[in-house]
Design goal:
Helices cover 30% and strands 26% of the residues. The protein is α/β, with parallel strands linked by helices. It has a single domain, classed as Rossmann fold.
């Protein structure tokens, strides 16, 4: 049987209901959200926008914008009252230094060229960049699009040897279900 590589709208909403009670996802969001700085934030690969929705609840004065490759979740974004732009992740439709913080959560492992996406996240951020990936092979726990890369503590950090970028912190958010690796970057 072929493994499904997408969620339809009703499946995505059902999945997101469980997300709030799913320790690994919630721990990862809390860790990223607590490190956000500034008032204009970009979530690259926002999916259905649940992380943006949560962030808006706690900090409604800040502007959270999402980015996705296509508009298939536009009905959900409208219901959640979130702004999401679509396009090419390797050529984000934003100006240089447009956001105070840019981040991605469990996106890079799905991309053919994760370093190119990282460079774009740096380009559109003026202050801080955060990226998170699952640690190790979690293919049996993945019901979304296929993982093209498996990262561990060593291979993930190697992606961030980039001129004029400081690795401010690098750590793991441990969970019995799935551990996430998180890197926090700043421009020099």
């Amino acid at each position: 049987m072929k493994k499904k590589t997408y969620y339809n709208a009703s499946e995505l909403i059902e999945n997101d209901k469980g997300w709030l009670f799913y320790n690994a996802a919630l721990k990862n969001w809390k860790s990223i959200h607590s490190r956000i700085i500034g008032n204009k934030i970009l979530d690259i690969g926002c999916g259905g926008g649940i992380a943006i929705g949560l962030s808006k609840i706690f900090e409604p004065e800040k502007k959270f914008i999402g980015f996705e490759g296509d508009k298939k979740n536009s009905k959900i974004w409208k219901l959640r009252n979130i702004e999401v732009k679509t396009g090419n992740i390797y050529k984000l439709p934003f100006k240089n230094s447009e956001f105070d913080t840019t981040y991605s959560s469990h996106v890079l492992e799905h991309l053919r060229y994760p370093k190119k996406a990282i460079l774009e996240s740096i380009r559109v951020s003026k202050k801080k960049i955060i990226h998170s990936v699952p640690c190790g092979d979690v293919g049996d726990k993945n019901f979304g699009s296929k993982h093209l890369h498996v990262f561990n503590r060593k291979t993930f950090i190697m992606l961030f040897n980039i001129k004029n970028i400081i690795v401010k912190s690098y750590y793991a958010v441990e969970d019995l279900h799935m551990t996430s690796l998180i890197v926090e970057l700043e421009k020099k």
